[in-house]
Specification:
Blueprint lengths: L3 E3 L5 E6 L13 H20 L2 E7 L13 E11 L3 E11 L6 E14 L10 E3 L3 H27 L1
Parallel strand pairs: 1-7
Antiparallel strand pairs: 2-4, 3-6, 4-5, 5-6
Bound molecules: coenzyme A (COA).
Length: 161
């Protein structure tokens, strides 16, 4: 197996139509529905990079900065920003697009940690990632700080148990 691949290899885009069953009484999409889409595209992205099964270890905090309404297209874009030994950080950006007016709005963005696992659910090593674009390099360079924050948060969580 190659030991490093360009970020490009994992890039994934999905477009979803916002339908009535996915929305509340204001006809805007449920946050949980968007989270499910985010989790799914992150899994696809990490599987493309690692060529293995993956599980979601964590989802960083998610802020919804605008909503999406029935009839909008929800466009999700994702790629692996950096890797550890067995984990991959995946960046997901979500836009809503009003196909009638062309108006596009950022809905949310998030970082997820996906872990490659074998058939018994045990973590296995993943290839490294090579950033090329400015955005990829910036997210690659800032990944260690986000990982450290996650570790701190996990420690605090364990202390509370
Ligand atoms: C994620 C999981 C495989 C980690 O297993 P583990 O026994 O803790 O394994 P390790 O301690 O070796 O950690 C493996 C990797 O996961 C990372 N990791 C573990 N917990 C993490 C967390 N909460 N957030 C971010 N990364 C985490 C570790 O940093 C490590 O990364 P690295 O190898 O790149 O350094 C395990 O906790 C699990 O299966 N969780 C359930 C996953 C799941 O079912 N998700 C769906 C929703 S319930």
């Amino acid at each position: 197996m190659e030991s490093a691949y360009p970020v490009e290899r994992s890039k994934t885009t999905q477009t979803r139509l916002v339908l009535p069953p996915d929305t509340n009484h204001l006809q805007t999409i449920f946050g949980g529905k968007v989270l499910a889409y985010i989790d799914e595209i992150a899994a696809l992205t990490a599987m493309k990079h690692s060529k293995s099964a993956v599980v979601t270890a964590s989802i960083d905090s998610v802020d919804f900065v605008s909503s999406a309404t029935v009839g909008d297209a929800l466009v999700l874009e994702a790629f692996v920003t950096s890797t550890g030994r067995t984990s991959m950080e995946v960046y997901v950006k979500v836009h809503s697009n009003n196909l009638l007016t062309g108006e596009e709005k950022l809905t949310t963005e998030s970082f997820l940690t996906m872990v490659a696992v074998d058939e018994y659910g045990r973590p296995i090593p993943v290839p490294k990632v090579i950033p090329h674009s400015e955005e990829e390099k910036r997210l690659f360079d800032t990944a260690p700080a986000r990982k450290a924050n996650r570790k701190d948060r996990a420690m605090i969580g364990k202390e509370k148990l």
